[in-house]
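Protein modeling request. Please complete all fields; requests missing the sequence field cannot be processed.
Requester role: graduate student
Desired output: 3D structure, token encoding
Chains: 1
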Amino acid sequence: MFRILCGLLGLLTSVTIVGCAHEPPPAMVWIRLDGQRGAGNPVLAQQFETDRTICFGNEQTQTPNDVEKRCMAEKGYTQVPQDQAEAKLQEFAAINAQKQAQASPPAKTAQKKK
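Delivered output (114 residues):
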């Protein structure tokens, strides 16, 4: 009886592990590192298509290799799970706005001469 229970437990564990191994990866999307949205902006959409063609050539793969990912990163993009894209865009936009505020010289106030 003990052998049967151990065998069943082993079989159940194997089925669980195999079941997990076949789970499809999440859908991935490219987003801009500056937090700007390409959707609705024809200039950014065209730039993305140009950059993608440079990095991928005519290959239309959903799973880029390291060279393609590095190329896209150099062009200002990163790939994230689709369900996290909006949050990441907002995060990157906030970081970009903070960098721009730090880079801008402070406004000078006019002082009256006596």
